[in-house]
Amino acid sequence: MNSLGEAAEQLAAAHLEAAGLRIVARNYNCRLGEIDLVCADGDTLVFVEVRQRRSARFGGAVWSITARKRQRIVGAARHYLMRLGHLPACRFDVVLVQGHGPCIEWLRSAFEA
User: Fold this and answer.
1) Which range of residues forms the domain containing residue 66?
2) For the domain that residue 49 is a member of, what is the CATH number?
């Protein structure tokens, strides 16, 4: 991962922790895909995709989450859940980090499995 991506994930993690979520795992990787952050929001397990873009040109960070990317995130989440042995409530969030400011936008329940 490049340093911009790492910095965006650090900013996203700090933003989520400040909002009361607990970071459970970072960069969970399996053959099906990768999840940037796995968080606990109370009893809900939250799979977080962090997207960083320098500007909103070409649709910005949100438009970079394609159907294929969502499919890979969902696959990795299913793999993660199989390892737990139980099925907690889950959701998929996206944290967008844009610009040099940077501007952070947290999209709760951004997509479904």
Assistant:
1) 3-111
2) 3.40.1350.10
